[in-house]
Amino acid sequence: MQAYYKARGYYDVKVEAEGDPTIAEDGRVPVRIAITAGPLYHFDDVTVSGLDHLRPSFVRKRFSNLKGKTLQPDVLDEKFGR
Q: Model pTM?
């Protein structure tokens, strides 16, 4: 569940699950799952530092179309070329 929410921009998600096998019936354990999504994060801007062999403008241009969009790790990985 955490991966599902984080992939959709909820980086502070908290998932708690609790079950009690001692009250199982026919091999089925009741489970309670509580999800607190937290805030939805958006891509704001790019700050570039510490580059020796790459122009900062290259990095800024590569990520400029993400401004204002929901922050998604798979999209960032794609932009990084991983």
A: 0.60
